[in-house]
Each structure stands twice: as structure tokens, then as C-alpha cells.
Amino acid sequence: MLNDPLFFVVAAACLVVVVILAIGIGGFGRGGEFNRKHGNRLMRYRIAAQFVAILLILGFVALRRMGG
Description:
By secondary structure, the protein is mainly alpha-helical. It is 90% helix and 0% strand.
């Protein structure tokens, strides 16, 4: 698995989702101007990043099952 470059792409995509989520939760927790200005946009970015990460995970699993 560690020899597969797609594994690292999937891991990076998951890490991006976690980072966006952490920034969004941190901004929500503090409130203020940052949250009012960027809160909804960050959550939209998170949803898009999760969509890409899920597609990559499904592709990775499909390729592993086919023996690729």
C-alpha cells in the first residue's frame, strides 16, 4: 500500500479535509468577524474537499480490488 502513489493522494485529500474542518471549527468557536466573513465559505470548501476525497477513496478501493 505504501508503494502506491494513489494512497498518498488519498491521504493528502483526507488531511486537507481535516485542516479545513479545524479552521472552520476554530473560527466558529471564536466567533467574531472571521466567522461571519469566512464561516460559510470554509464549510462549502470542506464539503467539496470531502467529495473529492470520497471519490479518490472509492477509486483507490476499486483499483485495489481489480488488482491494479
